[in-house]
Specification:
By secondary structure, the protein is mainly alpha-helical. The protein has two domains: 63 residues, Orthogonal Bundle (Arc Repressor Mutant, subunit A); 145 residues, Four Helix Bundle (Hemerythrin (Met), subunit A) (Up-down Bundle). The protein has ten helices and three strands; from the N terminus they run H-E-H-H-E-E-H-H-H-H-H-H-H.
């Protein structure tokens, strides 16, 4: 049997999968993340796991401690709401800038993602809806070209990935999310900066409301 030769993007793939495991609750807050066990689960080597954990540590999703390994970072409900509020303001800026910069190729890319979101929702694949949600926001950030804001947003979103996943599973939230993103894309493609920002802020208001509901439901189950 040939030895596994790590591909250049193996570490990124492992980080994506670890992030998803944390989002879906497979790994819970404060749970220890043992490199050898993760390597087995993810069918990779410890070096890739170690690099992936370092990436998630930088995002604020896990905590690495000397001589104690890594664990899933616990984000309090209060902190999650503070992060969501900060993200709202930044997302509005990005949407406005994207509307000012979007070209024909950008419009095609954005509309394609929305089409995929609609298909995923129709198939009740809410995990895929969540993935495409992140993909669409990343594409809007790329179009806007504001690297500083994009870096801040990536960190903020990663820290509350678990809460965001619970929120998208709330009844009616996935449908509303798809509709909200379609409105954002329509405004960006039309080059309407004011409408794009307003549509994004409405979407983020929906995100925050759903986040509050998810937190309340989780507290009620405790």
């Amino acid at each position: 049997m040939e030895a596994h030769v790590p591909k250049q993007n193996d570490q990124g793939d492992v980080a994506v999968r670890l992030r998803e495991f944390i989002a879906t609750g497979r790994f819970v807050p404060n749970e220890r993340l043992v490199e050898v066990d993760l390597a087995t689960v993810l069918q990779t080597n410890r070096a890739n796991v170690r690099i992936a954990l370092a990436m998630l540590d930088q995002e604020g999703l896990v905590i690495r401690e000397r001589n104690r390994g890594a664990r899933v970072r616990l984000v309090s409900d209060i902190e999650a709401m503070e992060i969501a509020d900060a993200r709202r303001a930044l997302e509005g800026v990005v949407a406005r800038q994207a509307a000012a910069c979007a070209g024909k190729a950008d419009a095609i890319s954005l509309r394609k993602i929305v089409t995929s979101m609609r298909k995923a929702y129709a198939a009740s694949d809410f995990i895929q809806v969540s993935r495409l949600n992140g993909q669409l926001h990343a594409e809007i950030q790329r179009i806007a070209g504001n690297k500083t804001v994009a870096r801040l947003l990536e960190t903020l979103k990663s820290q509350i990935v678990r809460q965001q996943y619970r929120a998208i599973l709330l009844p009616g939230r996935a449908k509303a999310s798809v509709q909200e993103h379609a409105a954002i894309v329509a405004a960006i493609c039309a080059g309407d900066e004011t409408a794009a920002e307003a549509a994004m802020l409405r979407h983020m208001d929906g995100v925050i409301a759903a986040l509050k509901q998810a937190i309340a439901l989780n507290a009620g189950m405790g």
